[in-house]
Amino acid sequence: MLCDRTGHELMRIAVIGDVHGYAPGLTEALRVIDELACEAIVCVGDIVDGHPENDRVVDLLRSRTDVISIRGNHDVIDLDDLRFDNRRWLLNLPVHAHLHGFDFYHFSPRLKDEKINSAIKAWNAFDDADFSQAVVGHAHIRALFRYATGMGPAAEELRHGSHDYRLEAGYRHIVVNPSLSYNRDRPAIPAFTFLDTTAMVVRFVSLNIAPMNTLLRR
Predict the structure, then answer these.
(1) Is 215 part of any domain?
(2) Tell me, what CATH number does 171's domain have?
C-alpha cells in the first residue's frame, strides 16, 4: 500500500462497470487506472452481454489480481457464447463487496433490481439499507447523492463534472458509477469512478474512446 508522509495508509480505488463485453472500453480504462496508481479496482457488474468480446473482457478481469468483481443482472443471462470456465466464474461472483469503508453493488444497496437515477430512488436506498458510503452501477449515468438524518423523504443530488468532489463528514453518500460501454449522460462517452478513500474524494474519469455502437437500451 502507498502511505503519506506521516505513514498513514492511502487507498485509491478505481470503480468500473457496465462493460457489456466492450473490450476497447475496458482496455482503455485499465490503462488509465494503472497511470493513476490505484491499489484496487472494483468492477460493479454487467461485465458481459452486448458486445461480441465477452470472453476477452472476462479474461482481462480474471487476469488482474487487483480486481474485485461483483455480479450484475447481465452476468447470469445469455451466457451460451462464453467459455465454460468464464460462465462458471461469472455465476460464482458475489453481489456485494466492502472495501475501505465503501460498499459496492450492481443494483441498489437494497439488493433490488432498480436503477438509482433520481433523488427519490436514492432516498429509498438510504432509508431502507444499512450502509455509510456506497457505489452502484446499473443506471449508466454519473451521479452523486447524499443524505443525512432529518433531511426528509428525498436525498440531495449533487452537481458534478470533471472536478473532484469531497464526501462530507456527517452525510451518507451514493456514487452512481458510469458505464465503460455507453452512458445515458450526454455526451455518452465511457467513464469510470476514482475514489481516494483517505481524502474521501470522488472523481468521474471520462475516457478518450468512442462508446459501444451496439447499444443495450436496458
Answers:
(1) no
(2) 3.60.21.10
- In a domain, residue 46? The reply is yes
pLDDT per residue as tens digits for the range 177-215 = 999 999 998 889 999 999 999 999 999 999 999 998 754
Enter the pTM of the model.
Answer: 0.92
Report if residue 50 sits inside a domain.
Answer: yes
pLDDT in tens, 90-125: 999 999 999 999 999 999 999 999 999 999 999 999
- Domain for residue 1, yes or no? no
Q: Which domain holds residue 68?
A: 12-206
Torsion sign (Cα): 87, 90, 93, 96 = negative
